[in-house]
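Each field is listed here:
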Amino acid sequence: MIETYSPLSSRVKTYQLVGDQAPEFALAENPLFEDFLKQYYISQEYQSGPVDLGENIDKYIRIDNLTKDVISGQVATASSITNIDDIITVDGTTKGFPQEWGLLKIGDEIVTYSGVTTNSFTGCVRGFCGIETYHALNDSDNIKWTQTTSSAHDSGSAVQNLSALFLHEFYDKIKAQYSPGLEGVQLSPELDVNNFIKEARSLYESKGTDESFKILFKALFGLEPKINDLEKYLIKPSYANYLRRESFAVQVISGDANKLIGQTLFQDNEVGNVLVNDASGPISEVVQIRDDYYRISVFIGYDDRDLIQGTFVVPGRTQSVGNIGLGATVITVDSTVGFGQLVLLK
């Protein structure tokens, strides 16, 4: 059953009571009978064993038991060990391993033990046997039970907690249920697993925000990321409205042109005394160009809004510059704007 990391008190096991239950005559005639029964029940009630799972399933399915020590399930040897050493010292803590008769794996060797200290396993039985994985390499639907032999191991060799295999399976299933998309992803060994699963909903509710990225990176890599919002560094066009104007060069015949600002400019276009277009627009700017010539700007509007009615056209009128001799083929005028390529003058 779950002993070292269960919030509940350990339940009494059969092997702890078998000495008191065996008949006295059987013990008298067979001095090793009690030890035989005890070892038999130990072999059936070891953590994650079939009897243990059946009797303590309520403890196994508690999310609070999914601590980072259990999920990581791995430490390393603090020094090299021979094939006969019965004490294995680790570089770290034995937290998450059973207090007794747990199974651990070093290299290809499975080891069981009778006790633990803060950083060591004592009473080790070398070259043991047991379930190595719930998913055999060539047959993922079946477990792999292995008989091993004792061997020497170097310092820093990985020590795997085989007694937590069922919890690993439970963890994978519940992670797939409550955090879809992360079921096949290896999360950070420093992650508070049970808290992450309990609060997984907040990760999906905040999806796309800076906080969701921070939670995800913390869960995956155990790091506190710095989020750079690239939108803040992009060059953006102004949010202001664009003013649009249409300008004309005009000659003042009479009056003060500067007083036209705010008035409406009208143009009646006639062809053969027939009105073909009537255009108008508000005058927003008047600038003197030279002498009695001014530039009048008609306000069109902001952006795509148009305040001009109709279409202003430049009339085909101008004046000659200098004298025109009889039979001249070139006439110099003030401007040809508004005239076509071939026109008839009068």
Summary: The two ends are 116 Å apart (CA to CA). Residues 14-167 form one domain. The longest helix spans residues 165-178. The first strand starts at residue 74 and ends at 76.
